[in-house]
Structures are given as C-alpha cells and as structure tokens.
Design a protein that fits this description.
2 strands; 6 helices; mainly alpha; 47% helix
C-alpha cells in the first residue's frame, strides 16, 4: 500500500499491522473512519482492506462466499467479477440494520386461524404484501 509518511499515522505501520487493526475494528467503524482524511478514505475503502474485512467479519455471508468463489475469475479489465468493497458495504448495512431493529424491507402478514385435525392452527392469510 502506498501511503504518505509525513501526515498519515497508518504510514508508520506495515500492511500486516494495518490488516490486524482492520480485523479488530467493528465493521461499521471501518466505514465511519473513512471520513477522517483522504488518505484514510483511500486506505479503508480500498479493495485490499474490504477483502480483509469481508472475509474476517462476515465469513459465512453470501457475499463472502461469492467473493471467495470469484477469486481467479476475471473480467477483461483484470478486476474480479465480484467487488469486495460493494460486498463489504452490503454486509455492514445488513448487519447494522438488523442490530438496530430496522427492517430492510417491509412485509405485512395477517394471521388467520384454521382447523387442522380438530385443533386450531395459525397461518398466514394471503401471504406477504
């Protein structure tokens, strides 16, 4: 990684130390720290950083699995078909909205009683909207 040593505190660290710090940070903090300076934004929004964060923080997510499968498969421009930056941001958004209790999509279910073998069971009427 290319960093300016005069102003950037990350410049004094090697890539392994930066990767270790990224693994310790909360995923939302990685995105929020991009607002500190231009050099931090370039470092923390890079494909390298996003790849480390995605695989470490969300190893079982569908995005991480798709990203791991796409390694080695390239487009004509030489970039991977699945962007690590977009995948990491998608996982952080989904994780954050779940922790905040905010649904990412709205659904509405109506419960309706019905008889099943002499017992009342509850089911959905008409599915989701």
């Amino acid at each position: 990684m290319l960093r300016d040593a005069s102003t950037d505190p990350f410049a004094k660290l090697d890539d392994d130390a930066v990767a270790y710090i990224i693994e310790l940070l909360y995923p939302l903090d990685i995105i929020l720290l991009q607002r500190v300076s231009r050099s931090w934004k370039l470092l923390l929004s890079s494909d390298w950083t996003s790849r480390i964060a995605l695989i470490h923080h969300f190893p079982c997510s569908s995005e991480a699995i798709a990203f791991k499968k796409s390694q080695g498969i390239s487009t004509d421009e030489g970039q991977s078909t699945v962007s690590a930056v977009q995948s990491f941001r998608r996982c952080v958004y989904r994780s954050h909205t779940r922790k905040m209790g905010c649904p990412t999509s709205v659904s509405h279910l109506i419960l309706e009683p019905y008889w099943l073998g002499g017992m009342i069971e509850w089911g959905t009427a008409g599915g989701g909207y």
